[in-house]
Design a protein that fits this description.
This protein has 284 residues and is of the alpha+beta class. It is built from seven helices and five strands, in the order αααββαβββααα. The radius of gyration is 42 Å and the shape is rod-shaped.
């Protein structure tokens, strides 16, 4: 019974190796956990920035494409507007195919240009075969514009239209431009790639700068953990040397103070063990 009590009293003195390892690991993990948290926040902020910047660029680029198509449609509509003001139908413009082809050659990406009358029937087109009439969504967008130039982004690209006014002020028809969206998508993807590259470089720079700042800012806490680690190591070595009958002196006063506290706690533990052993013997 006494031997079992003695072994249990020695266990805290010689189990400080695990505590020593845990303190040392905690000293290292404290820094890297904070660094990882800061880096994660930086990555999230940069990700949000890239997403918002990409959306903004896509919106601006789509607006620029639409406005450019409106300008092109406005230039193309001039000869047809002259004929409409003279009371001629748009289908009567003889050189209409040549006018539309010349406008199409200003941008090789243009899919088609259509000239439609007041009822929406297509009377001239660069497409072959040409559609019979404008689509329902085109008619709805034209009606919503109220006679003003308009453009709209679709799943396939862009459509743009300009109405042709007749002599009495009513609509004699209009010009429709169909434009693909692959160019806009390519530019958006290119911008996203550039933003990601810049964000990655910024993240690396922030991680390096964060490492330096945390090293300086956590220097006191790291020294504190290091002092505890060293004191626990001294206490463990002293416990083994005293168990072997040798004395052990700690060279540092601060370490000695902590070591004395550890030895005092160990002594109280031993005294408590003796008291419990004595009480147990009396109870038996």
């Amino acid at each position: 019974m006494l031997r079992r009590v003695r072994l249990r009293r020695r266990r805290p003195e010689f189990s400080t190796c695990a505590a020593n390892v845990q303190v040392g690991f905690g000293r290292v993990a404290l820094f890297w956990r904070i660094w990882a948290a800061v880096s994660l926040v930086n990555a999230l902020v940069l990700s949000v920035f890239v997403a918002l910047a990409a959306l903004q660029f896509a919106s601006i680029n789509a607006t620029l494409v639409g406005e450019r198509l409106v300008v092109l449609a406005g230039r193309t509509v001039a000869p047809f507007a002259t004929s409409a003001r003279l009371g001629l139908p748009l289908s009567a413009v003889r050189n209409a195919p040549a006018l539309l082809e010349r406008a199409r050659q200003t941008d090789e990406d243009i899919v088609a240009l259509h000239v439609f009358d007041a009822e929406g029937r297509i009377v001239h087109s660069t497409a072959s075969p040409a559609p019979v009439a404008i689509a329902t969504d085109v008619a709805a967008a034209r009606s919503a514009a109220g006679g003003a130039p308009w453009y709209r982004e679709t799943t396939d690209g862009f459509i743009c239209g300009v109405d042709v006014a007749a002599a009495d002020g009513s609509s004699a028809g209009g010009i429709l431009i169909v434009y693909p969206g692959r160019g806009n998508l390519t530019q958006v993807r290119s911008m996203i790639a550039e933003l990601l590259e810049g964000a990655f470089v910024a993240l690396l720079a922030a991680a390096a700068l964060g490492t330096l700042i945390l090293r300086i800012g956590l220097a006191g806490a790291i020294r504190y953990f290091k002092a505890i680690d060293t004191a626990c190591g001294d206490f463990e070595r002293g416990a083994w040397r005293r168990a072997a009958g040798h004395e052990w002196a700690t060279p540092d006063r601060d370490r000695a103070t902590l070591s004395d506290q550890l030895w005092s706690a160990a002594g109280r533990y031993r005294a408590t063990g003796k008291s419990l052993a004595a009480a147990r013997r009396e109870s038996e």
